[in-house]
Amino acid sequence: MMEESFGRVDRIEVFILRVPLNFPFETSFGVQKEKEALIVRVDAGGVIGWGECVATYAPLFNYETTKTALHVIKEFLAPSLAKADTLAGVFSGFQLVRGHLMAKAALENALLDVLARQKGISLSVLLGGEKKTRIPSGISIGIAKDIPALIRTIEDALTKRYHRVKLKIKKGMDIAILEAVRDWFPHIPLTVDANANYTPSDEGLIGTMDGFNLAMIEQPYTYDDLYQHSLLQRKLSTSICLDESIKTIDDARTAMALGSCRIINIKQGRVGGLVNSRAIAEYVTKAGGSVWSGGMLETGLGRAVNLQLQTLPGFDAPGDTAETARFYREDIVEPSAALDTEGYIAVPPGVGIGVTVLEKRLQTFAIHHEVLFGIG
Ligand code: OSB
Ligand code: MG
After folding, report:
1. What pTM was estimated for this model as a whole?
2. Which terminal CB of the chain, N or C, has fewer other CB atoms within 10 Å?
3. Contact, 221 vs 198, CB < 8 A?
4. What is the best residue among 32, 241, 270, 297 to mutate for testing ligand 1's pocket, by most ligand atoms within 8 Å of CB?
5. Which residues form the pocket of ligand 1, taking CB atoms under 6 Å from any ligand atom?
6. Is the pLDDT assigned to residue 119 strictly greater than 90?
7. Is 168 a residue of the active site?
8. Distance of alpha carbon 55 from alpha carbon 211, whole angstroms
9. Ligand 1 atom 1, closest CA
10. Are 303 and 61 in contact, with CB atoms under 8 Å apart?
11. Beta-bridge mates of residue 290
């Protein structure tokens, strides 16, 4: 796959979309009311491939933004594509650019889409996925000021048969929430995600979370401190899951060696794409840890990519791929990711990413459009 030619890259187009969210989504780093997403459309070897960049409008999750991704793609990554016709060639061109993994992932996804479409197979088959037709869905619920409203949201999620509930927490919005939720729902599969909001001085507070039978505590400490996480993991019986801290397979190796976590949330965009995701999943599961697929409030396009990823070996636990309709009134692809009556989402059946981009719909959300190279 890495050495196969996809032909020549003739044209790259980028769109920046602004899509309203059905409700404001609050994490420890802020409230998000709409989704800004950079979408790439790559025309190579006579086939169109699509990719969604998971970077957000502001550098709050990590340092990337939609506009840094546009800059890096336009000035540095797209020009290197003009000289490559295999993924191996593309990756070696990308290596010269430090970081900016979300920008790289968007192009990688689009080129994998091209390659899979040329072969008439899905991304899942291209990447060596298992024959899964549907993926168990988990739900991530933003920080709730109002506990009765949170209880209703969880009740609704359980009615829809979501397989696992993740609660966003931050300092001061944690133990009381967990007490109320466990009071109402003593046995549901439950996790929390702090998005790097705590410090080692909160060790005692995090220790009390051990009493709530959580499947994991996601990213308690800052986004690049593997050492402090390793000290914390030694004191907890609950597994730590790292998200922001893991950018590369080297980070994953260090984390496993130090015992900084037992679980890694793989966001394909955060680690530079699906090929890197597959390598990290393989390494972590062999080293005795486990992985699952996270989310960045993707549109239907990125959601379809996350579903393809979850067919790969190791992705057995429910991830954060909720159905598209949870966040968006209108989707930019067909078919939309939708829950079945047992809380699963079908792996989209088409070739490549598996869904069709509705270009007219996409244009209605575009605040920026530009052709990076190509004719017209
Ligand atoms: O840390 O997992 C996270 C959303 C935006 C930024 C960071 C995160 C999240 C989520 C939501 O938890 C996952 C989703 O539903 O896409
Ligand atoms: Mg997270």
Report:
1. 0.97
2. C
3. yes
4. 297
5. 27, 61, 140, 193, 195, 243, 294-297, 320, 322
6. yes
7. yes
8. 35
9. 195
10. no
11. 263
